[in-house]
């Protein structure tokens, strides 16, 4: 894991952990895994699951999923024209 990912993980983990201050790191990771629907052991928990869950846990409940938001168009006609290549981004 490179330095950027470690820094991002710590930034995402800090506010989440402050809300659950009584938990140790392993308990916190187990809670994140359970909330994300991960049923296997912690050794199979990927960093992508942790990142995604932390990002979504800190966002508004009605907020769009970050990976989908960049591709979303409010106007259906514009979306169709972009998909057909009529409108260039």
How would you characterize this protein structure?
This is DUF1040 family protein. It holds the Pfam family DUF1040. This protein has 89 residues and is mainly α. It has a single domain (3-83), classed as Protein of unknown function DUF1040 (Conserved Hypothetical Protein Ylqf, Chain: A, domain 2, Orthogonal Bundle), CATH 1.10.1580. Helices cover 57% and strands 0% of the residues. The protein starts with a helix and ends in a 6-residue tail after the last helix.
In short, what is this structure?
This protein has five helices and no strands. By secondary structure, the chain is mostly helical.
- CATH overall fold name: Conserved Hypothetical Protein Ylqf, Chain: A, domain 2
Q: How does the major sheet shape up?
A: none
Structural class: mainly alpha
SS summary, helix count: 5
Shape: elongated
Protein name: DUF1040 family protein
InterPro entries: DUF1040 (IPR009383), YihD_sf (IPR038134)
